[in-house]
């Protein structure tokens, strides 16, 4: 359930510091959030897909670690990103 390249490029241009910036924390958190949303919708339909559920939990943990790091490094940008993505600030 990977993101298609057009959607990924759109996220990179929206949240990246430059057009080719794919490694910054903002971009990584935004990409993970999109993948988590897609997997959540998938699991609403296929309730017994436990392999995908495990992958979802791993993605959530990875995003949580990235958010914790980003909050420590740049709190103002972190709060703006959380508001833009519509996710909770529970770190």
UniProtKB/TrEMBL annotation:
<dbReference type="GO" id="GO:0019843">
    <property type="term" value="F:rRNA binding"/>
</dbReference>
<dbReference type="InterPro" id="IPR005290">
    <property type="entry name" value="Ribosomal_uS15_bac-type"/>
</dbReference>
<dbReference type="InterPro" id="IPR009068">
    <property type="entry name" value="uS15_NS1_RNA-bd_sf"/>
</dbReference>
<comment type="subunit">
    <text>Part of the 30S ribosomal subunit. Forms a bridge to the 50S subunit in the 70S ribosome, contacting the 23S rRNA.</text>
</comment>
<protein>
    <recommendedName>
        <fullName>Small ribosomal subunit protein uS15</fullName>
    </recommendedName>
</protein>
<dbReference type="GO" id="GO:0006412">
    <property type="term" value="P:translation"/>
</dbReference>
<dbReference type="Pfam" id="PF00312">
    <property type="entry name" value="Ribosomal_S15"/>
</dbReference>
<comment type="function">
    <text>One of the primary rRNA binding proteins, it binds directly to 16S rRNA where it helps nucleate assembly of the platform of the 30S subunit by binding and bridging several RNA helices of the 16S rRNA.</text>
</comment>
<dbReference type="GO" id="GO:0003735">
    <property type="term" value="F:structural constituent of ribosome"/>
</dbReference>
<keyword id="KW-0699">rRNA-binding</keyword>
<keyword id="KW-0687">Ribonucleoprotein</keyword>
<comment type="similarity">
    <text>Belongs to the universal ribosomal protein uS15 family.</text>
</comment>
<dbReference type="GO" id="GO:0022627">
    <property type="term" value="C:cytosolic small ribosomal subunit"/>
</dbReference>
<dbReference type="InterPro" id="IPR000589">
    <property type="entry name" value="Ribosomal_uS15"/>
</dbReference>
<keyword id="KW-0689">Ribosomal protein</keyword>
<keyword id="KW-0694">RNA-binding</keyword>
<comment type="function">
    <text>Forms an intersubunit bridge (bridge B4) with the 23S rRNA of the 50S subunit in the ribosome.</text>
</comment>
């Amino acid at each position: 359930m990977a993101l298609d390249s057009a959607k990924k490029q759109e996220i990179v241009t929206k949240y990246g510091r430059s057009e080719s910036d794919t490694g910054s924390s903002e971009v990584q958190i935004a990409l993970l959030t999109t993948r988590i949303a897609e997997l959540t919708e998938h699991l609403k339909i296929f309730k017994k897909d436990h392999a995908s559920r495990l992958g979802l939990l791993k993605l959530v943990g990875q995003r949580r670690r990235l958010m914790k790091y980003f909050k420590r490094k740049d709190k103002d940008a972190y709060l703006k990103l959380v508001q833009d993505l519509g996710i909770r600030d529970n770190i």
